[in-house]
Amino acid sequence: MKYRVGILGATGLVGQRFVQMLEDHPLFEITALAASDRSEGKVYEDVCPWKLASPIPEKVRKLTVQACTPPLDCDLVFSSLPSSMAGAVEEAFAAAGYPVISNSSNHRMDDDVPLLVPEINSAHLAAIEHQKQRREWSGYIVTNPNCTTIALVLALAPLHTAFGIEAVSVVSMQALSGAGYPGVASLDAVDNLIPYIDGEEEKVENEPLKILGQFEDGRFNFADFRISAQCNRVPVTDGHTEAVAVKLRTKTDVKSVIEVLQNFRAEPQLLKLHSAPEKPVVVLSEQNRPQPRLDRNIERGMATVVGRVRKDNILDFKFVLLGHNTIRGAAGAALLNAELLVAKNFLRKR
Ligand code: NAP
Question: What is the domain-level CATH number for residue 228?
Fold first, then answer.
């Protein structure tokens, strides 16, 4: 018997990725879809502005969309709701006994909520027990990072372990799908670049420090370095590109940096979790890669793809990275989190 899954925000771009990635999943099956009152009570295929190349899975297309309020007929919920209302809805589900695996930013930085990247910080799952006790919930909330953060932090983690990071500068070029649907108006997007994404730079500057920190004695101790982020929206459909420069605490060379990145393996790979990439970081050697259109689906969109690793004149090294924002940046991240929760016995059938 598979775990029964509900999706909050099932009609959105991330919700659609969940639906696509959960088709034929060995551990999970979709039993409930929920969205706003615009969609509530209607058949999924009639209200979902489906934007993916594969068709809506047969098992799901005729399901009736429900309201985002408990109870739902499922063992856990994935949340991909707008941050304007996700916070309270997720709390209501956790209080009602549901594990909530969230993409939204509302609870990411809470001091009792794991901001989980299974390759990096599965020890942070210890925060769940604190959360349940403190908030008197029978369920709980686990979050995944912002889409730009996760691509970045997968590359920073092995470098931090091997050399210690002292400083990071990152300039992002983020895809349109990162803004949801309908997202950025076409007249703003085409032939253009928008040098501002509300709240994004703060997320990219803060979330990696929680992820790369430790959960000890009931509290999170953040990693001790600084990040400077500049975030831009560009007319690419899927795939966030980031130009990164790092200052390291230990002296090293380009060859060693590349080796550390491409040899990175962690718990999801050892546990062979279904959605885990074989290599969390893939390093390309061509001078003009990674490119979003060509490289975003490497490792089924679950890896950070790195290229152009070279010395930097101000910090120590610089490189370009790419992550698929609705796969590893959103639905795929949450799915991998749920697979880790199964492997670690944090999920129960209700
Ligand atoms: P989206 O395409 O705009 O979809 C939003 C979803 O939320 C839709 O299902 C919508 O339902 C539902 N919704 C809106 N208002 C609601 C309400 N008042 N009550 C209940 N449901 C409501 O957005 P998205 O891109 O999927 O993003 C969803 C969340 O994931 C956001 O918090 C976003 O920041 C986060 N995220 C997105 C990405 C990305 O790459 N897109 C990456 C990481 C994280 P209706 O169709 O019924 O309106």
Answer: 3.30.360.10
Residues 165 and 306 in one domain: yes
Pairing of strands 226-233, 165-174: parallel
Q: List, by residue number, the catalytic residues.
A: 147, 240
First-to-last alpha carbon distance for the chain, in angstroms, is: 12
Instruction: Please work out whether the CB of residue 104 comes within 6 Å of at least one atom of ligand 1.
Output: yes
Q: How far is the CA of 12 from the centre of ligand 1 (A)?
A: 5
Do residues 192 and 248 both lie within one domain?
Answer: yes
Question: Residue 10 CA: which ligand 1 atom is closest?
Answer: 9
103 lines ligand 1 (CB under 6 A): yes
Domain presence at residue 348? no
Gap between the Cα atoms of 320 and 309, Å rounded: 7
CATH code, 122: 3.40.50.720
* Sign of torsion over alpha carbons 219, 223, 228, 232: negative
Instruction: Name which residue sits closest to atom 17 of ligand 1, judged by CA.
Output: 36
Respond yes or no on whether the N-terminal peptide bond of residue 71 is cis (omega within 30° of 0). yes
- State pLDDT tens for residues 98-143: 999 999 999 999 999 999 999 999 999 999 999 999 999 999 999 9
The predicted model gives 165-194 an average pLDDT of: 97
Q: Whose alpha carbon is nearest atom 48 of ligand 1?
A: 36
What is the span of the domain harbouring residue 181? Answer: 147-324
DSSP structure class, residue 115: B
Q: What is the pTM of this model?
A: 0.98
Share of the chain above pLDDT 70, in %: 100
- Kindly state the average pLDDT of the residues 266-287: 98
For residue 329, the CA-to-ligand 1 centroid distance in Å is 14
pLDDT at 320 (0 to 100): 98
Are residues 233 and 136 part of one domain? no
